[in-house]
Design a protein that fits this description.
alpha+beta; Cyclophilin; 8-stranded antiparallel β-sheet; 10 strands
Amino acid sequence: MKVKIQTMLGDIVVRLYDETPIHRDNFVKLVRDGYYDGTLFHRVIKDFMIQGGDPDSKGAPAGKTLGVGGPSYTLEAEIKDGLFHKRGALAAARQGDEVNPERRSSGSQFYIVWGQVYNEGQLRQFSKQLKMQKIQSAFNQLAAQHRDEIMQMRRERNRAGLQELQDKLAAEAEAQVTGEGLTEEQRTIYSTIGGTPHLDGQYTVFGEVEEGLHVVEMIQGSATGRGDRPIDDIEMKMSIID
């Protein structure tokens, strides 16, 4: 399935991934409903990404801070190892982990990655960080499975038991995560085409730009004001083309 995003700077065509059906189907429904028509790319950061999908941006006066609007629902995360933040990736925005530990996606807001090219030393560091994030995620899932046991130990102030269980779960989590944090494909892409590797494993990537990457480049280079909002509004209109 493909979607055309029309802007005054040109058109962007994105292909939606079948591997993320929840996000694909939701995006298609919103496009067909005309939800995005007249909204803005309301947040733009050079060498990083362009973000849109806030319904409150329709007709928003100059200088108004945007970025919190959306439908009354969020989407279950569909974070896949093989779908990553290369240049041109289409991903779902979301609230931070402190209020959204399940990493559920915004019902409408999205971003398109621009990013930058990284050297081998930088990628080694990102790879270590990503592996640690995966281990922490595995640990959190295991801890959730033992929640009742942990709560009972806390009530009993059984510090030795808690430490023993923590050590056991940490070892299990580390055993579950094999290999390096970044794959060879990711290393190659990030060292040649570019992207934002520090976002991998954190947000749902559900598509990629097939045409119009030069338009993304122009938008990400726009002059911005407060809240990273472009000084000159960049309005969009979307349609299904495939």
